[in-house]
């Protein structure tokens, strides 16, 4: 990131007319190239749907641990509940002070869905659908607006759109992850160096992030310093994942980010929530460098994801 501000891309121009896909894609690509992150404005997802997802998530996370354990993420699947300190996104730090629920629309994971929160499944499924539609708009825009010097095949083959056809169906690992950062006691047993979410980059093609109004997310600049990426009303954050970096042979890069423990006691004692839509290409799609180079070895989307999961859990 060259400046302290994450760029904002508006789907509409100053005249109130929606921009062309090519224009939007060029602006998103430029933001990705400079910062790895972009705020999207007028993205089309209604605020009440996002708020409803935060509400049902909070209702689940506030259940007793013994109840949540019934829905724990199994070793052979990514769906389900992940307990506090179960993950270490930065292995050089103590485990993260967060819990999560990994949600997908696959038929074979319905047993992972909590029955105690009756609206949990429909509300998160609704946000999944909305995020999926926004994903397709972003990918279509990148197909249209990415410079030809990255690879003319992007424009000819609509490669980003066509490699994500199975989102929400068997054969694609895209998932919605609801994150809950519990309130912390300043006098409690916080370990030296422990944070809410350790420094990491995301695994897939792109991530769409919904934040509450508490803040705390920081993203890394090119000089290694971290700067805040606070919630901006009416926007969502989108960032580059590691597979997209490989795909573009480092033309756009996956930016590390983290969530620290707030220095102010008032904020430390508040719960923080976010919801991430982690976008993956279809499982069997082979990721090869779009410029024709061999900078990164070809790898399937699912093989790469499983490799990264193995290092996290």
Which features characterize this protein?
313 residues, alpha+beta, eight-stranded mixed beta sheet, four-stranded antiparallel beta sheet, 9 helices
Outline:
InterPro entries: DIOX_N, IPNS-like_FE2OG_OXY, IPNS-like_sf, Iron_ascorbate_oxido_reductase, Oxoglu/Fe-dep_dioxygenase_dom. 29% of the residues lie in helices and 19% in strands.
Tell me about this structure.
- Helix content is about 30%, strand content about 20%.
- The protein has about 325 residues and is an alpha+beta fold.
- It has a single domain, classed as Jelly Rolls, CATH 2.60.120.
- The strands form 3 sheets. The chain has an 8-stranded mixed sheet.
- The two termini are about 30 Å apart.
List the SSEs and their pairings.
Blueprint: E1 8-10, H1 21-35, E2 37-41, H2 47-61, H3 65-68, E3 80-82, E4 99-103, H4 120-145, H5 152-157, H6 159-162, E5 175-181, E6 197-200, E7 206-211, E8 217-220, E9 226-228, E10 235-240, H7 242-247, E11 257-259, H8 265-268, E12 272-279, E13 286-287, E14 299-300, H9 301-312
Parallel strand pairs: 1-2
Antiparallel strand pairs: 2-10, 3-4, 4-5, 5-12, 6-11, 7-10, 7-12, 8-9, 8-11, 13-14
């Amino acid at each position: 990131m060259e400046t302290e501000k994450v760029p904002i891309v508006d789907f509409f121009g100053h005249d109130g007319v929606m921009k062309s896909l090519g224009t939007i894609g060029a602006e998103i690509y430029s933001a990705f190239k400079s910062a790895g992150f972009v705020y999207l404005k007028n993205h089309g997802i209604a605020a009440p749907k996002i708020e409803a997802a935060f509400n049902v998530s909070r209702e689940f996370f506030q259940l007793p641990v013994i109840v949540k354990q019934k829905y724990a993420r199994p070793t052979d699947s990514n769906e389900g509940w992940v307990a506090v300190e179960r993950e270490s996104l930065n292995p050089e730090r103590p485990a993260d002070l967060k819990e999560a629920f990994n949600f997908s629309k696959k038929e074979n994971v319905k047993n992972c869905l909590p029955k105690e929160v009756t609206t949990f499944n429909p509300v998160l499924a609704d946000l999944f659908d909305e995020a999926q539609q926004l994903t397709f708009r972003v990918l279509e825009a990148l197909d249209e607006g990415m410079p030809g010097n990255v690879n003319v095949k992007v424009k000819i083959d609509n490669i980003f759109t066509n490699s994500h056809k199975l989102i929400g169906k068997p054969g694609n690992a895209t998932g919605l992850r609801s994150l809950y950062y519990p309130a912390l006691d300043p006098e409690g047993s916080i370990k030296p160096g422990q944070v809410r979410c350790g420094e990491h980059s995301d695994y897939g093609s792109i991530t769409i992030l919904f934040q509450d109004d508490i803040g705390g997310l920081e993203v890394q600049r090119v000089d290694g310093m971290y700067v805040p990426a606070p919630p901006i009303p009416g926007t969502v954050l989108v960032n580059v994942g590691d597979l997209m970096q490989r795909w573009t042979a480092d033309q756009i890069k996956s930016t590390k980010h983290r969530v620290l423990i707030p220095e102010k006691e008032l904020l430390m004692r508040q719960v923080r929530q976010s919801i991430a839509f982690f976008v993956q290409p279809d499982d069997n799609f082979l990721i090869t460098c779009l410029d024709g180079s061999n900078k990164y070895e070809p790898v399937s989307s699912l093989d790469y994801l499983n490799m990264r999961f193995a290092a996290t859990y």
